[in-house]
Amino acid sequence: MLSIELIRRDPDAVRKSLESRGEEGALGALLELDAQRRQAIAQGDELRSQRNQVSRRLGQLRGAGQQPDPAVVAEMRLIGDRIQTLEQQVQGLDGQIHTTLLGLPNLPRLDVPVGLTSESNRVLRQRGEPRRLDFTPLPHWDLATQLGIIDFDRGVKLSGSRFYVMSGAGARLERAAINWMLDLHTGPHGYTELQLPALVKQEVMEGSGNLPKFADNLYHDSEDDLWLIPTAEVPITNLHRDEILAADQLPICYVAQTPCFRREKTAAGRDTRGIKRVHQFNKVEMYKFVAPETSDAELEKLLADAEAVCQGLDLPYRVLQLCTGDLGFPSAKSYDLEIWAPGCQEWLEVSSCSNCTDFQARRARIRYRPAPGARPEFVHTLNGSGLALPRVIISILENYQQADGSVVIPEVLRPYTGFDRISAAASR
Prior knowledge:
Blueprint: H1 4-9, H2 11-20, H3 28-63, H4 70-102, E1 122-127, H5 140-147, E2 150-151, H6 152-159, E3 165-166, H7 168-186, E4 192-194, E5 199-201, H8 202-208, E6 220-221, E7 226-228, H9 233-237, E8 244-246, E9 252-261, E10 280-290, H10 295-312, E11 317-321, E12 333-341, E13 346-355, H11 359-364, E14 367-369, E15 377-378, E16 380-388, H12 389-399, E17 407-408, H13 414-417, E18 421-422
Parallel strand pairs: 4-9, 8-14
Antiparallel strand pairs: 1-11, 2-3, 5-7, 6-7, 9-10, 10-16, 11-12, 12-13, 13-16, 14-15, 17-18
Helix pairs in contact: 3-4
């Protein structure tokens, strides 16, 4: 959530930043509501001052044994009613302002490239070249079907389109990848592992920035008013909700593997083939609570931790810095990691590493005390996939496929799978 004080102090700068994200005209209504609120508060303060002065005079009269003028008493009642009306008006305006603020995205950092579409994203670096295979590579949906490790038809039978069943060596490969990623992040990278609920309250979704903006893309249990998480970022953001942390606790670094649930209502076309864009998938998520002055440096470390996964799997990847119009709703600065899939013939995003500054912390009221006795300040929050499993599996299958239809297992995963190759005969 943006700071209303910042918007009041420099509305032109905030407006320009929002327009760089495609949010034109977003501030007009908010500023008008804020002006009405401040006017109502000023009127209420003036009436209270007037009431206090008259009350003192009436008290002096009664103390002297004199009866106050009935007209003055009646006027005081009217003033009291007017104050109550103004208080209700302020309360209503507070609600409207809060709702409006919930719908505004974060402001981009100054070093974020300006642009409204993905064409303005910058490719910062690439590691590894797309593998040159001496045969025509299969896309993962054909390869996995031939190997018998992903069953698309039974996924549809169970749950409908964009669901699938991993089986045999395929299920073991995904479990191996998850376990290796968690060991990497909790070991050399120093994160604390969490096991989290997959269902959360509405205020938890609001704290992370998913509600109210993205309600149509979330799964909701209306009876218990609980929401299925689209990413572990949601519950981790709220883990320290309404808390004041000590400076020496920061940075706090968490990692968690959870199922993720997304309706993906707007996706269409080729993205619906295979397991590239599905309604339920596994993801390993990294998350940091940090002091504001360290958040840019911590973002670079977070990105390096995500890159280490791609490097360990020896998959060709590239790093993009997202432009203003392509940033996620709560993000002020983001890097995307994309890995090459030769069967699909495209780069697939497997991680988006973001600095959300104090945007989520303000919504979830997460603060820290910079020094003993100092006034609490909002922390900065960062998140990044480390990594998202379906597209990692896609890239492993397509990059490590062999001419005979088998798939070689990346070396770092072999201690976790217990085998070094998937073939049609051995996949079950």
